[in-house]
């Protein structure tokens, strides 16, 4: 391998690690997704506000 291809491989590994890696908050067990709120389709199942 030439020096340039090794550099590209390292750069690709760094980009992949940043794109698919976890943050420190996620490693600590915290989720950015609210787990205790209903989904939008549960609140608004037909896509519009229906009033009784």
Topology:
Blueprint: H1 3-20, H2 24-27, H3 40-43
Key attributes of the depicted protein:
52 residues, mainly alpha
Strand percentage, roughly? Answer: under 5%
DSSP strand count? 0
N/C terminus separation: 70 Å
Largest sheet: none
Low-confidence stretches: none
Structural class: mainly alpha
Helix content: 40-55%
Query: Gyration radius, to the nearest Å?
Result: 22 Å
Describe the structure.
The chain has 52 residues and is mostly helical. The protein contains three helices and no strands.
Summarize the structure.
This protein is an all-alpha fold. It has helices at 3-20, 24-27, 40-43. It contains 3 helices and no strands.
